Amino acid sequence: MDFLRPASWEEALAAKAEYPTAVPIAGGTDIMVEINFDHRRPEYLLDLNRIELLREWEVGEEVTELGASVPYTQIMENLRGTLPGLALASHTVASPQIRNRGGVGGNLGCASPAGDSHPALLAAGCSVEVESVRGSRLVPIDEFYTGVKRNALAADELIKSVHIKNATGPQQYSKVGTRNAMVIAVCGFGLALHPDTRTVRTGIASAAPTPIRAKAAEEFLNAALEEGGFWENGKVITPSIAKQFAALASAACNPIDDVRGTAKYRRHAVGILARRQLVWTWEQYRGTTGRPLEGAA
Amino acid sequence: MRVNFTVNGRQQEADDVWEGESLLYVLRERLGLPGSKNACEQGECGSCTVRLDGVPVCSCLVAAGQVEGRDVVTVEGLADFAKQRAEHGHGGACAAGGGCGTKGVSTDEAKRWSARPGDSRTGEGVELSNIQQAFIDAGAVQCGFCTPGLLVQADELLERNADPSDQDIREALSGNLCRCTGYEKILDAVRLAAARQGEAL
Amino acid sequence: MANTRTTPSGTPTNVTQKHTRGGIGESTLRPDGTLKVTGEFAYSSDMWHEDMLWGQTLRSTVAHAEIVSIDVSEALAMPGVYSVLTYDDLPAEMKNYGLEIQDTPVLANGRVRHHGEPVALVAADHPETARRAAAKIKIDYRELPLVTDEASALAADAPLVHEGRDDHHAGHVPHPNIVHRQPIIRGNVEEARKRADVIVEGEYTFGMQDQAFLGPESGLAVPGEDGGVDLYVATQWLHSDLKQIAPVLGLPEEKVRMTLSGVGGAFGGREDISMQIHACLLALATNKPVKIVYNRFESFFGHVHRHPAKLHYEHGATKDGKLTHMKCRIVLDGGAYASASPAVVGNASSLSVGPYVLDDVDIEAIALYTNNPPCGAMRGFGAVQACFAYEAQMDKLAAKLGMDPVEFRQLNAMEMGTVMPTGQVVDSPAPVAELLRRVKARPLPPERQWESAGEGADVRALPGGLSNTTHGEGVVRGVGYAVGIKNVGFSEGFDDYSTARVRLEVINGEPVAMVHTAMAEVGQGGVTVHAQIARTELGVTQVTIHPADTQVGSAGSTSASRQTYMTGGAVKNTCEHVREALLEMGRRKNGSYHPAWAHAELLLEGGKVVTDGGEVLADIADILEDEAIDLELEFRHRPTVPFDLKTGQGDGHVQYTFAAHRAVVEVDTELGLVKVVELATAQDVGKALNMLSVVGQIQGGTTQGLGVAVMEEIIVDPKTAKVRNPSFTDYLIPTILDTPTIPVDVLELADPNAPYGLRGLGEAPTLSSTPAVLAAIRQATGLELNKTPIRPEALTGTL
């Protein structure tokens, strides 16, 4: 095993080009477990800790560019207003110590369906900026996950940052685990309201081979909100809409039975979370837009 | 490979480090600082928590090569770290000496171990940080294997939040498993340390 | 440093000046506390030696197979590898070990019987070299049919897990795949059943729990110049290890010198041998010190677990709420090797009735040999599984009778004088009804505490916690009660004793007592109370606790809630003899100066000899001068007898201990997630030698019971008998956010037979905690829930 310690982004890209099998290590919260437990012996470890730009973020007018190694703790503390869904998801990641080290780059790089940041990224809408010595490109998040623990990266590419659309409405993230802290998702669900475009987006973790969106559920809800004039009148979402949205979210899952939970439970739980989050986000939307509450009747 | 970094204020050099070694292994097996504990080696228990450039992390998940040129504080240096913080407003280098060991526990030392007269209230002449003394006084130590990680983590909590609520304490310590105490006395210890810290101000 | 004066731990107001401080009854602090908070305490994994090698164990990847061939040549050829050992390299005639039945091979002999069984050992200069070498050992397995449950164990064509058994249970078991069977018959169930107005039956399943102590198995073996070996290890019982280690090394016991290193928790999981023999074998083979440290993955294979169990119960009661009869059958899965299975069967059967008066019972408990992971000792030891089932039965009966579940239990609660199903009379306080009254009388915690934080829901106080799954939706509260009975000490005629050596001498002008035992301090605080006992008995302030080793006689196991009773009792006993010797010395030297030497009751207090009237006769230091009194004595509890193999009759237990719990839970009924809000407990401890430690033990035991109620289970694939979740990622134990406040109410009703009247206490809280949580979840959900741990699937119909 060789340990590569590039001092700059350019050096890192050069190293990755020279050693395409090199495994990037930033927070180490996935790769070190695999090394400690003898599950993996990469030929090269490519340390990204010394590269400052990966730990920086910039909040723009419409988009926040988030460095791949910005620790979850920083996201929770600094980006709660701009990226509320991702901040909530960050808060559910493992433990404080892990949140101090891990960032979205690791989640995206591993592309485990159980990663907590995926649903929030899918729901918010974002592009992943990947770069190699050949140049950089933006991969839309919907095209990023290509299979079980596989992503759209070429062998010589590294994840530089994520360009995430700033929230224009409420966002939520929840995950189900059998412990009240420090637990890997049995399943996770994220929902973002986008009042600017009058759309909603969703994300689901650990209930399909890759992180996915519940597209049929989104389309249904977009149409229902439009038809009912909900965006303007701020009325309470009817139980039948919530129920149908939940059912479609549940139907979007393609889960397996494993040691953490049954497929049946995962489908069930995603439906419950979808319904609850719709209520939470919508109530917040109504509250923040100052709509009169008589619509509740 | 060779790794140079600062531990508890002292410059350290580790040689012939295998590239897959963790910071935890280097501390325990190469630098003679076995205080950070190896309970799960997968970031699920917090027993190996150290401060890396001030930030609490699981040292089992930091590759040794990643700490080149950086600053680490372990439980062995916690009392000095806390003292420096109290005196200079920030944690920092422990003075010469401190808890910076040079090798592991020899069998002679193990044979010599004995519970000395008295209990731990006097600290047996050792200067302890507020959180360390509170853990002893509150009965938060049983087998003690989780204790070093909890101390580093709890000390950092009180550094950030001088008056944490019970839920704040629970959240901050939710990455540190304890199998002996049922946590109640650990909560007591952190409350006690916070109260004593408040009195001291 | 040895002469540092002790600062008193709080000044009690009701004692006179001369009273010795830091004696029993005070919450003195741990003598190892400072070392443990500074990181200096030497745990077994912290040991280091010049020139040390690292040992690695290669374990079977299949559960049941013939080993067709092993090829170690490639591993041996690797640079940095010093030794590779297999069964063929074992040096002695004896190649097996075991607590009671020596059925466990040191290294597999042509056959593996469970997933993760040790097959080969490697010693190398770096752990990674050792791992790589182990990976290069080629083993050709031919898989054999599996025995995984009662049906496959007892089937007509069942493979025998152990052929040609000649152990002392082999003669009475109905099938060679049954380790031990214990029936208990008393009264006449058929007749008593006729008096029952209601009958309830239940089939209960208890999952496999892991001790999950935080300090993985580890130790260091150093070869001696005499051909022997020094072993530094974390264990629960040095002398039991020694008896198993020496024969397979082909060494006399005196050439295996064991020292207890720091122990990172135990809970039963260190009663069996793990890496001890392997490290010694490698050290002797290489003539170099060898350290073995399991990682968490290996730890799950490195020790036995709590027996999973299937329990069938039938209870009857009259319409006014009196139990008529009980019939039960308990099937424990012992896995591939016996470990403590026979004793677990004894406990499960003899305590299957719970703390209730029942004169007509028909009980059967068995432990199976299977190809599942071996199971043995864990806190609660057979009584835990039974308590889960009989307490569920009590709730069912109460519900069927329309009675309050606590009142129903109180109506049937045993008390002093009750006859157990074994015929043994409970001859010391058994305040079962009172314990229940106390937990019930406690005010309930406020509802909807997640709202009290002000704006929004504080998810940390809700089911799901930080995962943000509910803001109150679907959350229903439930309250449940349970009570349990556990035995203390080793039962069934076992010669259970502890040894204590105490030395009294003058150091720097002050009398100092040194207490030397082989007791394994695993965190429970034995070292704290030993010092307290010595202070009380010898009237000295300064007490040194000698490291535990095999240079002193056995202290028995740190298990069965026995150490304060047994080794504490031994320290008390030896101190009493030291005191007598000192007084004799005093009479010899000073007797002529004062008539009180001959006539008065003399006590040792505050470093002085005083009369019971308070008159000071002499300083202890002045009597001793430069002499030392040094005694080593054994202490035994009252004898027990084995249970009759057909009727189960016999005074098999030493002492009984009781605890009750009330659990308050909040269940997200839609997602099936549980938050335990409070877990109140009451327990009789006879006499609290150190209340701080007592409460710590009770809270810790309670939390382990909570864990197995809602999350903890080793999942074994029934098709392959392989463990599916050997890690802390998938074997979950409670975090601080899963653990509620645990108010503890301690009773002190003295047991006249026990030292200071104390009652062993470490295990009882683990019994009733689990069924109390289950009862609370049942109340919240209305579901029957006959299996623990509860999974979200079971609460949401999504299994």
Count of DSSP H/I helices of chain B:
7
| Strand order within the widest beta sheet of chain B | 2-1-5-3-4
* Rg result of chain B: 16 Å
Low-confidence stretches of chain B: 93-102, 112-123
Name the chain pair whose interface involves the most residues: B-C, 83 and 95 residues
Chain-averaged pLDDT of chain B: 88
CATH fold node name of one domain in chain C: Aldehyde Oxidoreductase, domain 3
Structure class of chain C: alpha+beta
CATH architecture of the largest domain in chain B: Orthogonal Bundle
* Beta-strand proportion of chain B: 5-15%
Helix content of chain C: 10-25%
CATH domain class name of the largest domain in chain B: Mainly Alpha
Q: What is the beta-strand fraction of chain C?
A: 15-25%
The total count of strands of chain C amounts to 31
Question: Please, how many domains of chain B?
Answer: 2
Question: What does this molecule look like?
Answer:
Chain A: One of its GO terms (molecular function) is nicotinate dehydrogenase activity. The complex is a heterotrimer of chains A (297), B (201) and C (799). Chain A has 297 residues and is of the alpha+beta class. Chain A is 36% helix and 22% strand. Residues 290-297 of chain A have low confidence and may be disordered. Chain B folds into 2 domains: 3-74, Roll (Ubiquitin-like (UB roll)), CATH 3.10.20.30; 77-92 and 125-200, Orthogonal Bundle (DNA polymerase, domain 1), CATH 1.10.150.120. Chain B has helices at 23-30, 78-88, 107-112, 130-137, 147-160, 166-172, 184-200, and strands at residues 3-7, 10-14, 49-52, 55-58, 71-73. Chain B has a 5-stranded mixed sheet with strand order 2-1-5-3-4, sandwiched between helices. Chain B is globular and about 45 Å long. Mean pLDDT of chain B is 88; it is low at 93-102 and 112-123. By secondary structure, chain C is of the alpha+beta class. Among the domains of chain C are: 45-144 and 217-293, Aldehyde Oxidoreductase, domain 3, CATH 3.90.1170.50; 497-636, Aldehyde Oxidoreductase, domain 4 (2-Layer Sandwich). In chain C, strand 24 and strand 25 (608-611) form a beta hairpin. Chain C starts with 32 loop residues before the first helix and ends with a helix. Chains A and B meet through helix 2 and helix 5 of A and strand 4 of B.
